[in-house]
Amino acid sequence: MSIKVEQLTKIYGTQKAVDGISFEIPSGQIVGFLGPNGAGKSTTMKILTGYLNATSGKAFVNGLGVEEHGIAVRKQIGYLPENNPQYLDMYVMEYLNFVANVYHLPNIAKRVDEMIDMTGLAPERNKKIGQLSKGYRQRIGLAQAMIHNPNVLILDEPTSGLDPNQLVDIRRLIVEIGKEKTVILSTHIMQEVQAMCDRAIIINQGKIVADDTIGILTSKDKKRLVIEVEFVESVTKEKLLSVQGVNEASQTKGNHWKLITDKNEDMRVRLFEFAKNNNYTLIKMQQQEQSMEDVFKQLTGK
Amino acid sequence: MYSILKKEVAHFFSSLTGYLSIGVFLLLTGLILWIFPGDNNILDYGYSSLESFFFMAPILFLILIPAVTMRSFSEEKNLGTLELLMTKPLRDIDIILGKFFAALLLVMFSILPTFIYFWSVSQLGAQEGNIDSGGVWGSYLGLFFLAASFTAIGIFASSLSTNQIVSFILSILMSVFFFWAFDMLGAFPLFQGGIDYFVQQIGMNAHYISISKGVVDSRDVIYFMSIIIVFVVATKTVLESRKW
């Protein structure tokens, strides 16, 4: 197990930020750490990196206790803190040299060049960090986290504030890295989890509310189904509700309807029959897959 | 520790901080000792002594050292880079000592050129070289310890606040307190008859004057070392308080 957390609890004053969470992450997995703001994601990550101590419970990285073996653990993890703090008056090369120096890396110049190539920083290598755009700063954040080739990466919102192009680049980079390393990353963007992660841990108010592979999470809801239909004619709500299995019907626009139905039978056949029997012209029918977004809302909504 | 020291020194000399503080120190001491007429002018005074330099240097350090140390932790806290440093394989004490020695090194760079004053005065003696060398070397040692203590206090003050101005003012207040306050307190009639001596011994000035005489008393050295250690440990405690 690369990361193991047992009954971790962190209390700030009277507020329980993390409330007895446990999970294990085997090596080579990319795990999305999800939750609303203030759910305890960052706190958990800070405990894993040894920046904060847990009130109770234990955290292990590669089998080493985070509190007892602080220095040894920190050598094995790369960490990108939330908001990606950086020395804005340092030059890119100067900063990476400094970080490499902190890790006592042999052959620093070569390693810094490798990181610059890997993260695509080459065009900006001689600039001050403060002059760079957010996307490039994020790359520097990743470069400093990976410069010592750690086998565990902890990334706190690595893609926040990036434009769509930068987003794609950074995601590709993380997936690339995740082939060999264990990555745990937090994010608010659900498509991102679907795109990058093997598994998602959803936490809400300090507790784990779901911990499964993306596939299982998105097919978990067995009770209901969302079907979108469109007719040429106008149809009343009562008529639609009279179809067996349709529980809710809401008009989205024009003759567009969003139906929430039972899942156990194939509703599409019934809806087609319904249209045929009433002489309606059915021009669209689409069964929606449940997205991570829906899962997230169900599990963490109030 | 070494990597932090290197980063800090590089910062001093890539920003204006380093040149400015060394420059201001040398400019002011140079002007007052050699150019401006008055009691502190060595040439006017006519005695082969650096006393006015060793009187003035602590006062300048009381302002300049807090100015150098105020950003050390305040800025890191403010930018969030402290979290970055503390999640690297560095012990808290490595970070503190790295910053402490970097600031002290800068102070040393401002003291070193003043050896020229020493050399000049000794050349100007009625007989060449006629100067109380023991006293001067003692005074330099005292000044070094004093600067190191101010630096430790400054680093500590900086760890208390995310605002550099607050750190700066706090650091001046604490330095002034430890430097002079006990001398002043000792002068109260309340402490007459022997107690005043012990009150004054708590402050730095008494030990600075004692070392300046050219006799290095182990009590003075231990005193300054204790002050430095107390403030370094206090800084460590402040940094660890994030975990409470």
Give a topology summary.
The complex is a heterodimer of chains A (about 300) and B (about 240).
Chain A: E1 3-12, E2 15-25, E3 30-34, H1 41-48, E4 56-61, E5 64-65, H2 70-76, E6 77-80, H3 92-102, H4 108-118, H5 134-146, E7 152-156, H6 164-178, E8 182-186, H7 190-196, E9 199-204, E10 207-213, H8 214-218, E11 224-231, H9 237-241, E12 246-253, E13 256-262, H10 267-277, E14 282-288, H11 292-300
Parallel strand pairs in A: 3-8, 3-9, 6-7, 7-8
Antiparallel strand pairs in A: 1-2, 1-4, 4-5, 9-10, 11-13, 11-14, 12-13
Helix pairs in contact in A: 3-4
Chain B: H1 2-14, H2 17-35, H3 42-45, H4 51-69, H5 71-79, H6 81-86, H7 92-111, H8 115-124, H9 133-160, H10 164-186, H11 195-202, H12 204-212, H13 218-240
Protein architecture, described:
The complex is a heterodimer of chains A (302) and B (244). Chain A has helices at 41-48, 70-76, 92-102, 108-118, 134-146, 164-178, 190-196, 214-218, 237-241, 267-277, 292-300; strands spanning 3-12, 15-25, 30-34, 56-61, 64-65, 77-80, 152-156, 182-186, 199-204, 207-213, 224-231, 246-253, 256-262, 282-288. Chain A has 302 residues and is of the alpha/beta class. Chain A folds into 2 domains: 3-218, Rossmann fold; 224-300, Alpha-Beta Plaits. Chain A is elongated, with a radius of gyration of 24 Å. Chain B is an all-alpha fold and 244 residues long. Chain B is globular and about 60 Å long. Chain B has helices spanning 2-14, 17-35, 42-45, 51-69, 71-79, 81-86, 92-111, 115-124, 133-160, 164-186, 195-202, 204-212, 218-240. The model of chain B has no long low-confidence stretch (mean pLDDT 90). Chain B has one domain (2-243).
